[in-house]
Amino acid sequence: MVRHVVMWRLADEAAGAAKKHNAARIKEGLEALAGQIEGLVDLEVGINAIELPGNYDIVLIADFQDQAALERYQVHPEHVKVADFIKQVRLERVAADYVI
Q1: Global pTM?
Q2: How would CATH label the architecture of 2-99?
């Protein structure tokens, strides 16, 4: 299994909405991918609850059967839609993929 972890720092205002609204939209969009992509085993999305310097605003933790499943996820049309929105509202992105 491969665990895919991504964190984003969002702009205070982007795409005509405040950070809080955009974070909720990202969470909803990512969670909607559950059950749609072959090999996506589990998916969790969290919105930062404690404002501390250095904290990111939203995190994705997703488990895939294997690297091929992660690669399918990356190009899946529904994931691409969410990713395109995220690119509009994010300031930073960090990620790690590791075998579990």
Answers
A1: 0.95
A2: 2-Layer Sandwich (3.30)
